[in-house]
Design brief:
Blueprint (H helix, E strand, L loop, with lengths): L9 H16 L25 E10 L10 H18 L3 E12 L4 H17 L3 E10 L5 E10 L13 E5 L9 H4 L4 H8 L4 E6 L4 H4 L8 E5 L15 H4 L6 E5 L5 H11 L4 E9 L9 E3 L17
Parallel strand pairs: 2-3, 7-10
Antiparallel strand pairs: 1-4, 2-4, 5-8, 5-9, 6-8, 7-9
C-alpha cells in the first residue's frame, strides 16, 4: 500500500499529473465537463417529481480495512457502504463524488486498484462518478469518503413503526469480520421493492448490529419482543449475540404493519428474490416489569442482555 520508492508514489506524480491519472481511471463511470470533473462543482440534472436522497460515508485505514486488504475490495466497500444507505430508503442511486486523503508515500498501483474497485461497483449499479477532491495527509494514512445522490418515488424512513408491527430482516447476521464486511451486496433491488409495499412502515440497513440499529425503528415507549430462535445467523457468526453486536451486515431491517398477512407477504417476496427473509419479532409497549429494556426475549419474557453495537468515538 505504501512505498519507499519515490518513483512509485503519488508524490512523484504531483497533484496535476495525479488528477490526470484519476480522470483516466474513473473514465468508465464519469461524464465530460461540466457534468464531470473540471470545475468547482459538477452540474447534475435534478430528478423531476422524485424525492432526492443524499448520503455520505467513508473508509479509513485500520478502521474499515487494513494494509493487507485487497485495494479493489476497499474501493468496492466504499461505494457499497453508500449504496446500502440508498437501499435502506428504497431509493435508486445516480450521482457520486469522492474525496480522498492521500499520503505522499501511497503506492500508485494501490490507488489505481482502489479506484478500479470503486468504478466496478459504479458500473454495476449505474452510478455516475461526477468528480471529487484529493488532499494530502501524513504518511502511512489513508481515508476516502463518498457523497452519493439518488432518488425515490416513495421514501421509507426509520420512523413509521407502531405497536404490533412485525420486525423483519433480510439475509443472515453476525460474523461479518470474516469476509462479509467486504463481500456484501447492497440490497438495492430489495429496498426498491419494499418501498412499493404499503405494509412496510420503517427501514434501516444494519451497519452497527441489532443492539444499536433496531432501536432506531422503535417508537417512543416501546420495546422489541424478539424470538431469538428465529434470528438468521451467518456461518461465521460466533454466537447468537453476534447478530446484536458485530455490525457491518448491510442487510435491511424493517417493520411490517401489524395487520399484514405475513404468509402472503413472504410469498410475494419469494416470487421476486432468493434472498431469505425472516420475521424475528414485533414491536410491543414497554413491559411494566422491565421498562428500561429495549429487547425482551419472547420465550422467557426477560430482557435480552446483548453487547453494545458499534459505537463511534469510544
Amino acid at each position: 500500500m505504501f512505498t519507499d520508492d519515490l518513483k512509485q508514489s503519488v508524490q512523484f506524480l504531483g497533484e496535476s499529473e495525479l488528477l490526470v491519472k484519476i480522470r483516466q481511471w474513473i473514465l468508465p463511470v464519469s461524464k465530460p465537463f461540466p457534468e464531470g470533473p473540471g470545475d468547482d462543482c459538477a452540474v447534475i440534472d435534478t430528478y423531476p417529481e422524485r424525492k432526492i436522497l443524499v448520503t455520505t460515508d467513508g473508509v479509513v485505514l485500520n478502521r474499515h480495512f487494513t494494509e493487507a486488504t485487497d485495494p479493489k475490495a476497499v474501493g468496492s466497500k466504499l461505494v457499497k457502504r453508500n449504496l446500502s444507505d440508498i437501499a435502506a430508503m428504497g431509493g435508486v442511486p445516480k450521482n457520486m463524488v469522492m474525496a480522498t486523503m492521500l499520503p505522499a508515500n501511497l503506492s500508485i498501483s494501490w490507488f489505481e486498484a482502489f479506484l478500479k474497485g470503486a468504478v466496478e461497483e459504479c458500473l454495476k449499479y449505474s452510478v455516475v462518478l461526477n468528480g471529487g477532491d484529493i488532499t494530502q495527509f501524513p504518511n502511512n494514512y489513508f481515508a476516502a469518503y463518498v457523497t452519493l445522490m439518488g432518488s425515490a418515488d416513495k421514501v421509507i424512513t426509520r420512523k413509521g413503526g407502531k405497536v404490533g408491527d412485525l420486525i423483519v430482516t433480510t439475509g443472515a447476521l453476525g460474523g461479518s469480520i470474516h469476509g462479509k464486511h467486504l463481500s456484501f451486496s447492497p440490497r438495492l433491488r430489495e429496498g426498491q421493492w419494499l418501498a412499493t409495499r404499503k405494509e412496510v412502515k420503517g427501514m434501516i440497513d444494519i451497519t452497527d448490529g441489532l443492539t444499536k440499529d433496531l432501536p432506531e425503528l422503535l417508537p417512543e415507549n416501546t420495546q422489541a419482543r424478539i424470538d431469538l430462535s428465529a434470528i438468521p445467523l451467518n456461518d461465521t457468526a460466533t454466537s447468537l449475540l453476534s447478530a446484536f453486536s458485530d455490525g457491518e451486515d448491510y442487510e435491511l431491517l424493517f417493520t411490517l404493519d401489524a395487520d399484514c398477512d405475513w404468509d402472503n407477504f413472504y410469498s410475494d417476496w419469494k416470487k421476486q428474490f432468493t434472498l431469505p427473509l425472516t420475521c424475528i419479532g414485533k414491536i410491543n409497549t414497554k413491559a411494566a416489569q422491565h421498562p428500561s429494556a429495549l429487547f425482551i426475549n419472547d420465550l422467557t419474557n426477560e430482557p435480552i442482555e446483548a453487547a453494545p453495537g458499534y459505537q463511534h468515538l469510544l
